[in-house]
Amino acid sequence: MSDLLATFGPSDSDAELISEIARIHPTRVTVLIENVEPGWAFDETPGGMDLRNRLAALMAAIERDTGATVTGLAGSRDQLTGWRFDREVNGRTPVAA
After folding, report:
1. Structure pTM?
2. pLDDT digits (tens, 9 = 90+) for 31-71
3. Dihedrals phi, psi of 60, to nearest 5 degrees
4. Which of 44, 43, 39, 34 minimizes the C-alpha distance to 73?
5. Distance between CA atoms of 79 and 65, rounded to whole angstroms?
6. 3-state secondary structure of 77
């Protein structure tokens, strides 16, 4: 069994991240959307609705394309204190030191 933290930012390519998640073959995935306002879940502005639609599409694509179960959703790393993950996937490209 493997637990994966999938971190998505506002400018990340969802398709590329989902492909990377599928390559790893996790059992469970927790989705973290970085850099969102604290009240994003109740934001009725077009931006808030777009974010929730994106999350729904991401979670469905992860389950469909990877066979993993999406076990959680977080809007900040603070919500994940004490959680343990085997791997993390994000949209950041590693930079050479």
Report:
1. 0.82
2. 998 877 777 778 898 888 888 888 899 899 999 998 999 98
3. -65, -40
4. 34
5. 26
6. helix
Residues 6 or more apart whose Cβ sits within 8 Å of residue 67 = 25
For residue 34, what pLDDT is reported? Answer: 81
Cβ–Cβ under 8 Å, residues 10 and 40: no
Helix (H, G, I), strand (E, B) or coil at 22: helix
DSSP string, 31-63: EEE-S--TTGGG--SHHHHHHHHHHHHHHHHHH
Strand, helix or coil for residue 90:
strand
Q: By percentage, how much of the chain surpasses pLDDT 90?
A: 32
H-helix or E-strand containing 66? Answer: helix 46-66
Task: Output the CA torsion 50→32→3→27 (10° steps).
Answer: 0
Neighbours of 68 (CB within 10 A): 21
